[in-house]
Amino acid sequence: MEEKYLVCEDSIEGVFTGIYEAYALREGHEHIHIQIGEEGNLRLFATYINIEPDAVKTAKVAQTLRKRLGDEVYLYICRALAAQDRMKGEAVYKTVVNGLSKGGGRRVMENLADTHVERTFELARSAANEALRYIEIVRFKESGEGILFSKIAPKCNVIPFIMPHFADRLSVENFIIFDDMRKIYGVHPALKDWYMVSDSDNSVYDMFGESDKENEYQELFTAFCKTIAIKERINPKLQQQMLPLRFREYMVEFDKK
Amino acid sequence: MEKLNILADAAKYDVSCSSSGSSRGGNAKGIGNTVSAGLCHSFAADGRCISLLKILFTNECIFDCRYCMNRRSNDVPRASFTPDEVCALTMEFYRRNYIEGLFLSSGILYSPDYTMELICQTLYKLRNIHHFNGYIHVKAIPGADPALIHKAGFLADRMSVNLELPTAESLKQLAPNKNRKSILKPMRQIQNTISANKEELTLYRHTPRFCEAGQSTQMIIGATPESDYQIMSVAENLYQKFSLKRVYYSAFVNVNEDKALPALPGGPPLLREHRLYQADWLLRFYGFKVDELLTDDRPNFNMRIDPKADWAVRHLELFPIEINRADYRLLLRVPGIGVRSAKRIIGARRFGNLNFNDLKKMGVVLKRALYFITCSGKMMYPTKIEEDYIVRNLTDDKERLKFTNDGMRYEQLSLFS
Q1: Which of A56, A109, A229, B176 supports an S-S bond with B46, CB 3.0-4.6 Å?
Q2: How far apart are CA B344 and CA A39, in angstroms?
Q3: B-contacting residues of A 99-138, CB under 8 Å?
Q4: Of A98, A130, A162, which closes a domain?
Q5: In this structure, are A208 and A235 located in the same domain?
Q6: CB contact, 8 Å: A248 with chain B?
Q7: Range of A198's domain?
Q8: Which residues pair with B253 in a beta bridge?
Q9: How far apart are CA B19 and CA B123, in angstroms?
């Protein structure tokens, strides 16, 4: 039988719509695949179908997944879709099929011997780990108006996963986190709900200037980090293992000023 | 700035860094919440995590502990914070997400009571004036009034009293102003208050919480001649009888050039510290007992392989075990399988038999595990089940060279023995 590729947008909406359409085809799932974005190298004996993201279909799929697979699996799936990987659509789609049609049910994520489930699990884990890492290493700077702002460059789309943490922790602060890779802002006005905004350039971020006290605290913390290390135990390799270089770009204590 | 440098420098030998164990949502009044798993915000050049703003309130001290940099007889620059300075630093660092909370310890200024009073004042200000709702770890000063310790406990997430040295004799020798009793007394008090508080909490949900994240302690390793067996037994006792959350081990760093202290030409005993931590984990998460790991005849850990592998090669009669059948507790005993992979195995084998490839994907370290397990009755590849052979394969070439001179148990046959 001919292979069919559903070409979806790289977003939760895109992939969920793709899953909806895959089920709507009613041709079984063995020969249907979900692909994210256009691929340069097309296959000869395959049909490519473009899928437009659709809010209604997305909501239907989301509702079914939550009802039949449970919130925990749903969270895994959302995390996996935030990861940076070209094959994530296919992995998630086949995991969903495994859960809904092959009896995996709420336990589907435990079936790690299945390649697609395992892949989804891995992607979800990498996204969750990166989100946790960014919860730790986001460094806010204070602007003249007392707004906290921060820039990050994560591999996965972590903003939706880290904003709830900061909204809870710094509920009385106005703060903004800017994802430089995707040009997305997470915005939190004091004592209100947070939301996301996307922007094509850095113009909003560049508006912020540092307050007078900001530099002083940056220096204090840098000095603190330097002092706290025990001379006899210096071990840069261990430090790098615990905190790889790619995370250090926007951290004030590693800023080589 | 100068002050922060002096007092952070003085606090750096305190090992405790965790910000874990308490989970509390934020509130609309102030800033801060706590996450039960703890967060490490940065890592210092020695590879240790920076989670809390770790400072001493003052490094002036009336005590004269031999191993301590801040002892009375040392000539070091002295400084003290005021409560307001500590509050400002904590708040500003916390807002910028530099730190997870405050770790406040102190040298003893004038008297234990006076110092503890100052610490309490600081914590009170931080919690009630600045509405700081994040993590606070505070030291209980041995010898301070129990009422003050009680007060501090309601303001902090975790309290700790340092045991300093594993036995009473060494303590007498190196810390003449401290004694076992003055250390264990506050520890017992904190334990009792925590358990009483827990009962109260089940009745009255909103009653104030006392040291939600429990208490911890630390011991200095390598300054005195205790064996690993003694140290681990003390630790086991502390976990069982004092219900501590954590015991920290701190490789002794010689800062004082004192004749009562050993000279350490090879630097601090870091590998020994590492082995103790490994064993500590085995006690807390793997269901091991100290007596299984060490005995009077073998009082020290094997420096070449980790305590778990060491235990396994001495109990080869139990292995290999079958991955698709063995129960959770047995799985945990296999080197290369940790808590997480054991749980994953239990979950995944409901769907069908597992093979070595699946195990690898689940995070089992086959390099170490392959000598001890079978999948559907087969080993990964034919291998001898023999102590010497396995040990040789568990240590890699580089390590083998390192240990040829001393402290080695498995060695080549000597010509003259």
Answers
A1: A229
A2: 35
A3: 104, 107, 110-114, 118, 132, 135-138
A4: A130
A5: yes
A6: no
A7: 138-254
A8: none
A9: 17
Provide the residue-wise pLDDT of chain A in tens; the chain has 257 residues: 788 889 988 888 999 999 999 999 888 888 898 988 877 677 788 888 888 999 999 999 999 999 999 999 999 999 999 998 888 999 999 999 989 888 778 888 888 888 899 999 999 999 999 999 998 889 898 888 888 888 899 998 899 999 989 988 888 888 999 988 888 889 998 888 899 888 777 777 777 778 778 888 888 888 888 888 888 888 888 888 888 888 888 888 887 54
Q: How far is CA B410 from CA A13, B8, B293, in A?
A: 60, 44, 17
Number of domains in chain A: 2
In this structure, are A123 and A165 located in the same domain? no
Interface test with A, best of B34, B42, B86, B356 (most A CBs within 10 A): B42
Q: Which residue of A112, A140, A151, A161 to mutate against B (max B Cβ within 10 Å)?
A: A112
Among A130, A152, A182, give the residue marking a domain's end.
Answer: A130
Q: What is the ipTM of this complex?
A: 0.85
Please report the domains of chain B, with CATH numbers, ordered by start residue.
2-288 (3.20.20.70), 307-402 (no CATH)
Q: Which residues lie below 8 Å from residue A58, measured CB to CB, with a gap of 6+?
A: A12, A13, A16, A17, A20
Same domain, A114 and A143: no
Predicted confidence (pLDDT) per residue in B262-278, tens digit? 777 777 888 888 999 99
Q: Are residues A42 and A116 in the same domain?
A: yes
Closest residue in chain A to residue B268, using alpha carbons only: A232
* Cis previous bond, B320, omega within 30: yes
> A-chain residues within 8 Å CB-CB of B46?
229-230, 233-235, 238-239
List, as ranges, residues 343-362 from B with C-beta within 8 Å of A: 344, 347-348, 350-352, 354, 358, 361-362
DSSP tag of B127: H
Which helix H or strand E contains A78, and what residues bound it? helix A55-82
Count of CB atoms within 10 A of residue B63's CB?
17
Together in a domain, A243 and A147: yes
A100, A175: one domain: no
**Do A19 and A117 fall into the same domain?**
yes
Distance CA A121, CA A83 (A): 11
